[in-house]
Design a protein that fits this description.
globular; alpha/beta; 15 strands; 2 domains; about 30% strand; 5-stranded antiparallel β-sheet
Length: about 270
């Protein structure tokens, strides 16, 4: 088996150095990039398309959960969270089959995580790795959300159309469809990217597509749709397909199966 290509992400230099020393002793993993923040991690994951991501959760700016939300499901590597989170978060990770290493880091535990990643890659090659990650994040959000939110608060007021209602950490938000930049599906969850924020919604991509204006929103991947008004440029990829560059700085891969739809829009 070829070595797993890994990216390590942590805002603590000592943590990165420890992971580097652990992985240097492994015959199964090679580091292709090291990142000190979430923004660099997203860019590195798009560029290198690694097999494995060692990802710190608690980072300033874009945290580890937001890194997961920002990556397209079909490009999502396996993730090993590096965390100092308390027990309830660990239980959520276990429930959704997400691996994790508790700080302070331990070489033996890092080694077991690599073995688990190899086993998972062999058994889940056709599965989206993002789906269980989003499930874990959603479970954690539910547990810390305010208990005062009722079901009735999630309903649209009478007469309002073209809006998406989401509950985010106990707060009900109403998002106009025109504010949505792009949407990434992970199983029965969607990551809705709008106005600089990402919201997890329990729905399917097919359900949302049926509500959107098909002259504005286009499917570019089996799990991704984009607001074409946000696209500022398109660049080809060596292995086929193309890369969309959005006005907010995001980069989205267009699969070969959907490139004709994009080409027709910009003729």
């Amino acid at each position: 088996m070829q070595k797993l290509r890994a990216i390590t992400v942590d805002d603590e230099p000592l943590a990165l150095e420890f992971l580097r020393s652990c992985l240097a002793e492994s015959a199964d993993v090679e580091i292709v990039a090291e990142c000190r923040n979430g923004r660099d991690a997203v860019a590195a994951a798009i560029k290198h398309q690694p097999d494995l991501l060692f990802l710190d959760i608690q980072m300033p700016g874009i945290n580890g959960f937001e890194v997961v939300k920002a990556l397209q499901a079909d490009l999502m590597p396996m993730v090993i969270f590096v965390t100092a989170f308390d027990q309830f978060a660990v239980e959520a990770f276990d429930l959704h089959a997400v691996d994790y290493i508790l700080k302070p880091l331990d070489k033996e535990r890092v080694g077991r995580s690599i073995e688990r990643a190899i086993d998972r890659l062999k058994s889940d090659q056709e599965q989206s790795f993002k789906t269980p990650l989003i499930g874990a994040i959603d479970s954690i959000s539910d547990r810390v959300a305010s208990k005062t939110v009722t079901k009735s608060e999630g309903k649209l007021p009478s007469g309002i159309q073209r809006k998406l209602v989401v509950r985010d950490s106990g707060v009900v938000k109403v998002i106009p469809f025109d504010d949505i930049d792009w949407v990434d599906a992970a199983g029965d969850y969607m990551c809705v990217h709008a106005a600089g924020e990402t919201h997890i919604v329990r729905s399917t991509l097919t359900e949302l597509i049926s509500k959107l204006d098909d002259s504005l929103f286009v499917r570019i991947h089996r799990s991704t749709i984009v607001n074409i008004e946000r696209v500022v440029s398109v660049s080809p990829l060596q292995k086929g397909g193309s890369l969309l560059h959005l006005s907010g700085g995001e980069e989205l891969k267009v699969s070969r199966n959907y490139r004709e739809a994009i080409r027709n829009l910009f003729q």
